[in-house]
């Protein structure tokens, strides 16, 4: 379960108030990471996570945002991309270290050292301060715009519409991946849709905490499993591209370990998906939107 306790709607506020409040919280946290002190990697990672949460927020209320959705979604996406190379190299090192630890295998040490050198070189590039400043400036502007975001339509219409679209895509990609489970790109697309649905359930968790939190936790695991598998895919591709610079025996061992781990992860992912993605999109969207609409009444009854 996530420790970001601000990423949810509050039943006592209107939908518009909730959207603006969550946006302000996430942008403010991202700005704190950009301008703060300490190691750069965790700060960059936090900024990228906040951008994904903001895009998840936008997707949930997309039917009510009108023309604002496209431009704001693109802006947060592009801000995250300012740091994608740093994150990719960090994940490469972590994935190699994880494989070596699980296998108890010292033969991967040359590759871990190579990945660490690539990561460190990236962190010392001269343009990083400029990227940090650009991201901060763009987020300051976005924070101002977010105070006036319109959310038109009834809460049920907007939330059900956003849920239906994103959850429907997660279901569709699950079925596609099930027909071709060795297709790395299909699983990558599926992972992204699952993550957005996870964000939506987190935003709505206060509507009915017990069942919603259980759903959030299982979706969190599914997202992590698919994310770990994607990291292995990226690792294999990166090593293939750099093959001439790396020991052949170590590369072969990584491929063996990665393939075995990927098989376990994909089996787990499809098992979790059967629990989370079996309901038809219209039914789920109406059900969860209904939870949210009835949340204030339920809270009043509980208090009484």
From TrEMBL:
Gene3D superfamilies: CHAD domain. InterPro entries: CHAD_dom (IPR007899), CHAD_dom_sf (IPR038186). This is CHAD domain-containing protein. Coiled coil: none annotated. It holds the Pfam family CHAD. Residues 12-282 form the CHAD domain. It comes from Roseovarius indicus. Signal peptide: none annotated.
């Amino acid at each position: 379960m996530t420790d970001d306790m601000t990423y949810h709607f509050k039943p006592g506020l209107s939908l518009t108030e909730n959207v603006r409040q969550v946006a302000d919280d996430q942008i403010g946290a991202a700005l704190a990471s950009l301008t703060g002190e300490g190691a750069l990697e965790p700060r960059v990672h936090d900024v990228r996570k906040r951008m994904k949460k903001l895009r998840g927020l936008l997707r949930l209320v997309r039917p009510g945002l009108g023309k604002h959705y496209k431009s704001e979604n693109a802006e947060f996406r592009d801000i995250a991309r300012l740091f994608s190379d740093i994150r990719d190299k960090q994940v490469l090192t972590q994935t190699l270290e994880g494989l070596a630890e699980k296998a108890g295998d010292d033969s991967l040490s040359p590759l871990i050292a190579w990945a660490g050198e690539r990561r460190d070189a990236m962190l010392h590039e001269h343009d990083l301060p400029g990227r940090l400043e650009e991201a901060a400036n763009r987020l300051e502007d976005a924070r101002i715009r977010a105070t006036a975001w319109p959310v038109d339509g009834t809460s049920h219409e907007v939330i059900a519409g956003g849920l239906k679209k994103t959850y429907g895509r997660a279901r569709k990609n699950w079925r596609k991946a099930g027909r071709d489970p060795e297709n790395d790109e299909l699983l990558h697309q599926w992972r992204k849709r699952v993550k957005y649905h996870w964000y939506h359930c987190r935003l709505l968790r206060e509507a009915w905490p017990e069942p919603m939190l259980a759903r959030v936790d299982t979706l969190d695991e599914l997202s992590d499993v698919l994310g770990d598998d994607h990291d292995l895919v990226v690792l294999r591709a990166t090593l293939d591209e750099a093959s001439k610079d790396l020991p052949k025996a170590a590369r072969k061992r990584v491929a063996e370990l990665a393939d075995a781990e990927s098989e376990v992860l994909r089996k787990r992912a499809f098992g979790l998906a059967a629990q989370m993605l079996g309901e038809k999109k219209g039914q789920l969207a109406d059900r969860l939107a209904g939870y949210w609409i009835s949340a204030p009444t339920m809270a009043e009854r509980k208090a009484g």
